[in-house]
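Morning run. Coffee first, then this:
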Amino acid sequence: MLITHGRTQRLNGFWREGQRRSLVCAALLFGLVMAPGAVMGDEFETQTADQARLANLVLQDCGSCHGLTLRGGLGPPLRPEDLGGLQVEAIAAIIREGVPDTAMPPWKPLLSPEEIHWISRQLKSGALVSP
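And here it is:
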């Protein structure tokens, strides 16, 4: 029995050490995942959530006229190669003011200037376009 007891203690010690290592690894992993939020705070999380919301808006709302892949539809294509001649500020002006006598509405009542500028930069860079 003493041998079994010693063996059990060794096994328990081994499992405890394994559990401790697992907890340390889990804590480190959690820290790495949460580090951007901890370092940047709520602003980072809000910015990312806002960007995701705006990207979804472009693909869903803009995509309803410009095509879900932004290759064109009722409205012209919005891919970088199609926007090549336009500056980011010109794209922002079109989004903000709309295009008279077309289906393109002004978005300034619904989007802030910062949001319009972010969308314009993303469209110009192709960041919202799926291959």
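Residues 23-41 have pLDDT under 50 and may be disordered. Good start to the day.
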